Amino acid sequence: MDEKTILIATNDEPFGEYLYHQLSDPGWTISRASVLSDLLRKVREGDVDVLLLDSNNIEGIPCYDLIALLKKSNSRLPIIALSEDSSLETSKRVRHEGIFFLAMKPVDPEEIRTAVGDALKMIRQQEQRRNRKMAKIIELRPAAEFDLSPVKEICKEHEGARGDLLIVLQKIQSIFGYVPKPTIEIVSQSLGVSTSEIFGVLTFYNRFHLSPRGKHTVRICRGTACHFKGASSIIDSAKSHLALKPGKETTNDNLFSMEEVACLGACGIAPVMTVDEETFGHLTPALAMEAIARYQAAEEVAAAEAVQEKKAA
Length: 313
Ligand code: FES
Fold this sequence. Notes:
The protein is of the alpha/beta class. The protein has three domains: about 5-125, 3-Layer(aba) Sandwich (Rossmann fold), CATH 3.40.50; about 145-205, no CATH class; about 215-310, Glutaredoxin. The protein has twelve helices and eleven strands. The strands form three sheets. A five-stranded parallel sheet has the order 2-1-3-6-7, with helices on both faces. Strand 1, helix 1 (about 15-20) and strand 2 (about 30-35) form a beta-alpha-beta unit. Helix 6 (about 150-155) runs antiparallel to helix 7 (about 165-175), helix 6 (about 150-155) runs parallel beside helix 8 and helix 11 packs parallel to helix 12. The longest helix is centred in the middle third of the chain and has 29 residues, at about 110-135. FE2/S2 (inorganic) cluster binds near residues 221 and 224.
């Protein structure tokens, strides 16, 4: 988590090469993308901390036309736009799209380095704020409610191995179905990683959960094909239908957990959602809510039957 990745997106090979060398820094991994699918995948999968976006075309698509889509995939991604066009209109347009910094070409490497440094500083501040917030949101269950001995065993195996953090968290999640808060302190002391760093990892990777999972898992795809066919309105409707909000992925009755995923492998029937093992395609917000409502109705019937059985016993 300490090393940050700077992605240079340009189809101008010599320019990309020049930036690559100018930006080399021990704390930064510099990566490059000259193909659209590569750029979108890296941004969507969170492999980028700061994006340098050249103003030229990538596969015939003007880069600035991609800003909204890139922001949709990762709204917090700082984008540094590199432009030859110093017109007020371009400046207004890219700023309106929410870019972090606009640098004029030919670029001044020092200016770019400073802008990248500022963007990383902003990210660190956001991470610290988010981690503090998450620590408050996550349900605080007393340690006594958990049998922590298997966690201690796991931590003993990896004692002092900071690099094993992901493996250790994965093992803990396989025991509880999520990573309970009381285990974080144990991991921190054993591996020598600060608790805020652990919260950072847990909130960065989608595969980790910080609260118990619901009985049913709703996965809604926000990949490129689904995005272009209205995935975001389905996600918004499902969140509001299930009364979920940032930091709260599971309904109060513990029946549903919702996840946004990169691709469900069924792009041909986009937009797509799954509920447990069932796949729903060609969705609209109304059809998605109807599918979820069917599961809710089935749960209500099951609960009513259980009450009846209890009375009859
Ligand atoms: S992009 Fe949604 S299923 Fe592939």
